[in-house]
């Protein structure tokens, strides 16, 4: 009698067999590269907690995008830091606002080769740092939607292929879909930040975008990290309102949420490997405590295995250059 009869190790015995049996792959076209562009600076400004990333000038943004395109990353999500902030965040929809200028610049430089996604929010543009207009100390949902509509139109007019509302206002996807359609932008897709949690993992981003709220926090609009079923509800609402892609954010502490959203919707699912997740990897790697390349492979495979088809990650450019070597690492 031979024991055991089932021997899973057989399929692990040689690289060629492991490759054949591999269930999950990452390709460069799955990666979306977030970039920051800042108005009224002459030189790119390094972001301390995000080594390798900068608040870009229009010129340095174009160079960074070109370097990414060279290694196969063609999708970008843009965040703007305006020269002036005000109570409404009016630079967000100004025709010459920094993101609108960046969209035109990248389109001029790369044509249809670049897929341009515009993050749509107000927190980088308001002097109080909240994602919408205030009534007293509260963010007013429906008045904020009117401003989101203006931003969506400005971004679409400047050439955004995809609009990505991240403010977590109720009804934001429906409002944006409707105004885009009315203005003739029926071809522009909406990537909805459907389940965006009130997370400490956004810390480095807020330094990068200058978007820390001046008072209070975002817990009255972003989700409670304790909730998973609610994420399914948020995703369903966004799909009903016209979302083309739904996103879960952050990724690593929310892999179960990615899975639940993937199982309950029939649109593509994205996950955002956020700034704090990037910073932790970079800090540990800089100390020599982890093997960064192998850790990144595991992180991206994990997000993918959980059910995300596309991944927004600050590692996009560096891993794209490395992906061809991953088979050997496994
Ligand atoms: C703004 C926005 C945030 C992020 C993306 N869009 C920050 C926030 O909600 O405070 C975070 C991204 C990251 O941490 O990488 N609405």
Q: What's this entry about, in short?
A:
It contains 12 helices and 12 strands. The protein is of the alpha/beta class and about 325 residues long.
List keywords for this structure.
alpha/beta, binds ligand PBG, single chain, 330 residues, 12 strands, TIM Barrel, 12 helices, eight-stranded parallel beta barrel
Question: What do these coordinates show?
Answer:
The chain has 330 residues and is of the alpha/beta class. It has one domain: Alpha-Beta Barrel (TIM Barrel). The protein has helices at 15-21, 58-70, 98-110, 141-157, 172-182, 203-209, 229-241, 255-264, 275-286, 292-306, 316-322, 326-329, and strands spanning 31-38, 45-46, 54-56, 75-81, 115-120, 134-135, 138-139, 162-165, 189-196, 245-249, 269-273, 310-313. The model has no long low-confidence stretch (mean pLDDT 97). Ligand PBG binds at residues 119, 121, 123, 131, 166-167, 202, 205-206, 211, 218, 274-275.
Indicate the topology:
Blueprint lengths: L14 H7 L9 E8 L6 E2 L7 E3 L1 H13 L4 E7 L16 H13 L4 E6 L13 E2 L2 E2 L1 H17 L4 E4 L6 H11 L6 E8 L6 H7 L19 H13 L3 E5 L5 H10 L4 E5 L1 H12 L5 H15 L3 E4 L2 H7 L3 H4 L1
Parallel strand pairs: 1-3, 1-4, 1-12, 4-5, 5-8, 8-9, 9-10, 10-11, 11-12
Antiparallel strand pairs: 2-3, 6-7
């Amino acid at each position: 009698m031979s024991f055991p009869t089932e021997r899973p190790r057989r399929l692990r015995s040689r690289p060629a067999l492991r490759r054949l049996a591999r269930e999950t792959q990452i390709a460069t076209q799955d990666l979306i590269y977030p970039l920051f562009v800042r108005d009224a600076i002459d030189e790119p400004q390094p972001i301390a907690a995000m080594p390798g990333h900068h608040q870009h000038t229009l010129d340095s943004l174009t160079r960074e995008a070109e370097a990414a395109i060279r290694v196969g990353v063609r999708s970008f999500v843009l965040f703007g830091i305006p020269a002036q902030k005000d109570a409404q965040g009016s630079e967000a929809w100004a025709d010459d606002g920094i993101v609108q200028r960046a969209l035109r610049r990248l389109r001029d430089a790369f044509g249809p080769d670049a897929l341009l996604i515009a993050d749509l929010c107000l927190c980088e543009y308001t002097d109080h740092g909240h994602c919408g207009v205030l009534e007293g100390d509260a963010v007013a949902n429906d008045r904020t939607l009117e401003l989101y509509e203006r931003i969506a139109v400005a971004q679409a007019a400047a050439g955004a292929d995809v609009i990505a509302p991240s403010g977590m206002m109720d009804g934001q996807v429906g409002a944006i879909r409707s105004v885009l359609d009315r203005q003739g932008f029926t071809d522009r897709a909406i990537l909805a930040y459907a389940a965006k949690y009130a997370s400490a993992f956004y810390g480095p981003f807020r330094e990068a975008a200058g978007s820390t709220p001046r008072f209070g926090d975002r817990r009255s609009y972003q989700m409670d990290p304790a909730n998973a079923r609610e994420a399914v509800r948020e995703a369903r609402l966004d799909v009903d309102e016209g979302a083309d892609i739904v996103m879960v954010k952050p990724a690593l502490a929310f892999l179960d949420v990615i899975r639940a959203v993937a199982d309950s919707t029939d649109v593509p699912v994205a996950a955002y490997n956020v700034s704090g997740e990037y910073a932790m990897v970079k800090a540990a790697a800089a100390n020599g405590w982890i093997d960064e390349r192998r850790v990144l492979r595991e992180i991206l495979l994990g997000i993918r295995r959980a059910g995300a088809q596309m991944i927004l990650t600050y590692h996009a450019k560096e891993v794209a250059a490395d992906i061809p070597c991953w088979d050997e690492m496994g």
